[in-house]
Amino acid sequence: MGQLQLTLVAVEKNNSKIVSLFVLLTNVVNVVGGSCKRLDRLREQQASKVIEILGLGEIISGRGLNQETSLIKPGDTRWGSHYGTLISMITLFPSVLDVLEIITEDGATPEQKCEADMLINSLQTFDFIFSLHFMKKLLGITNELSQALQRKDQDIVNAMNLVRICKMQLQNLRDSGWDSMLTQTTLFCKKHEIEVCNMDAMFLLPGRSRRKYPKMTNLHYYRVELFYDVIDLQRTELESRFSETGTKLLLFMACLNPNNSFAAFDKNKLIQLARLYPNDFSDMDLEILNDQLETYILDMLNSSEFFNLNGIGDLAQKMVETKRDKVFSMVYLLIKLALTLPISTATVERSFSAMKIVKNRICNKMGDQWMNDNFVAYIEKENNQLQRQLPIPPQNTVVYQVSHNNFIGEIPPLICELKSLQLLDLSFNNMSGTLPSCLGILSNSPVSLNLRRNNFHGKMMNAFMPGSLLENLDLSEIRFMGQLPRSLTNCANLEILSLGDNSFDGLFPFWLGSLTKLQVLVLRSSKLYGPIQGSTTVSSQFPKLRIIDLSNNNFSSQLHQNYFQTWQAMSSENFGVSSIMESEISSKNGENSWPYTLTLTHKGVRTEYIHILTIDMSIDLSCNHFEGKIPQSLQDLRGLQALNLSNNHFTGRIFPYLGDLKNLEALDLSQNELSREIPQQLVRLGFLEIFKVSFNHLEGRIPKGKQFDTFDNNSYIGNPQLCGQPLSKECQDDLKVSRLPAISNVSESLLPSERIDWIIIFCGVGSGLVVGRSAHKEKGQMGKATS
């Protein structure tokens, strides 16, 4: 627990007001405490203030001038140092102002005088006083917990009780602390003659244009945008570090601690701990464990060799030395499992949150001989920059995740002998060479294989064996060459396949459509070409597909009008999720999830999604050479949320039934050869955030109303026959609007076959779209916004 420290990072990164508060405090400390002379003045001013207050009877103190008379400089991440700074600022507030006033008159330079004057103006605002008292209250709740967790000898039970109390206090502050916080701030302002904010007035940050802020009252801003928001951020931080499941695990583990003559021993809790390992403890084993625990504790309390042990590691080692591991085999098994930082719990998924509780590098006081079962290696990306050959973990490793390091060299073939491996993540390293062919055979074991962004070369391995258990495969950003291996069809459980940013040579692997569980397919920027459809008679092509990114390739030809007909998962708004995606949902209920990332283009921006997934259904076919009409079968994909067909050669009109896409958030049809009017029916798209039809052959009046009033010129440029807002070109013939067919009469203008098929077209599109920028047709990354 010694390395686990709560930090302000989560709050500071997510609320600019808190950032501003601590920047201002740092400036005050630097200016006021910049010299011994100023510190002496601060002490003098504080001394006189204390005497004055005592004379007025506001405080009673026998310590007099021994009160705090110095400002504490805040540290970068420690809660305690920030907490001390806030207390000092509140206590010394009038004295700080007096010293700043002195500096404005006799500062060494004009710059010092000016800075002191600006600080005085900033400090004497309701905004600063509220933030000051609010953060002091918030950090006062978490300060004791922070201090406790930094003590190496901290008792786990006591620490977890502090966590529980801290969560309760934060919830109470949110539920019933607003009125007292506002009253406290108001009284402080009145005492120091600072103007009190009118909560019913409209909020306006001093020095900022009103146009740049949404209209809200001061009450809404301070209560919702600041008070509630920061408390919620801190509660989220605590929950992420101390989930209910993780806290329970630690409390159960503490019952094994031999300190103070096994004072923490609790048989019932240890039985509950064992139940978290169903693969290791059967019902019969639990009965044996129950009996062994009764004898075990009596033996421990009456055996001198077990006196004065320091920690569970010493206990396990002493049990081996005295052969107690054979006598109490079930107890010893439980101790071994606990010593692997409850990693090997019921499933691999549970291991991730258990490791996040510790939040440090893997460490253990025991050697391999003490923990020869189910060890999990997990090195977090932010804590390590290991530059060396990839080490081989123990044979029974279940999870080996060493992403975002600096490992070099080739993948050693010995990695394929890890038969218990379920997750292998070597992504974001500097490894090189060719992939060992045995990795394909290894796919019979791991559920997830991620080698993304390394320096491998050559061809992708072609030995995926029948019966493969592989569910995730990410070999993107590697620059593999050659054909995609057809042995991928042996991976019947594959749900996520990301092979983007490579240099493959060949046609679209239409045979991937036979993978009935495939939900995510990313082949962007992979130098593939030709048509993307095989036999149109196959009835099971991509039945579970929810996300597909084929952008920036050389795919061509017309898309069959029934091409999307078999994409059944996108045909309903009530879609299901994969087993891996289910773990992301269950994590919100205290369970755990796979630490998997995937990069997708979302509303014009390349975004890395942690876990799977925060967007739902999207199709990206941009930057290719498709031609002909947009396939009619798109109308069946009612769950679709994003459609990007930009930078192709599609022709024909934009159908009015796009207006029935009630969930549409983004639609990019730019850089094509579409013609005729933009249907007025698109105004019904209430969630539309991005709309691009630039550089086509569209004509007539641009629709008005709702979301269309928010789009700028860039959505329409390159269509000289378009008119109306936001374009500067006015429509000369207003009668043309009246001749547009009414929604109820649109079907009369269609052929009978069209009338039926297009009634339900496009019932929901959203997610990853790109924005076209070039004014001429050019192959490349037009519209691809990357970050």
Automatic annotation (TrEMBL):
<keyword id="KW-0812">Transmembrane</keyword>
<keyword id="KW-0433">Leucine-rich repeat</keyword>
<dbReference type="GO" id="GO:0051707">
    <property type="term" value="P:response to other organism"/>
</dbReference>
<dbReference type="Pfam" id="PF00560">
    <property type="entry name" value="LRR_1"/>
</dbReference>
<dbReference type="InterPro" id="IPR003591">
    <property type="entry name" value="Leu-rich_rpt_typical-subtyp"/>
</dbReference>
<dbReference type="InterPro" id="IPR001611">
    <property type="entry name" value="Leu-rich_rpt"/>
</dbReference>
<dbReference type="InterPro" id="IPR055298">
    <property type="entry name" value="AtLOH3-like"/>
</dbReference>
<dbReference type="GO" id="GO:0006952">
    <property type="term" value="P:defense response"/>
</dbReference>
<keyword id="KW-0325">Glycoprotein</keyword>
<keyword id="KW-1133">Transmembrane helix</keyword>
<dbReference type="GO" id="GO:0016020">
    <property type="term" value="C:membrane"/>
</dbReference>
<dbReference type="InterPro" id="IPR032675">
    <property type="entry name" value="LRR_dom_sf"/>
</dbReference>
<comment type="similarity">
    <text>Belongs to the RLP family.</text>
</comment>
<keyword id="KW-0472">Membrane</keyword>
<dbReference type="InterPro" id="IPR012337">
    <property type="entry name" value="RNaseH-like_sf"/>
</dbReference>
<protein>
    <recommendedName>
        <fullName>HAT C-terminal dimerisation domain-containing protein</fullName>
    </recommendedName>
</protein>
<keyword id="KW-0677">Repeat</keyword>
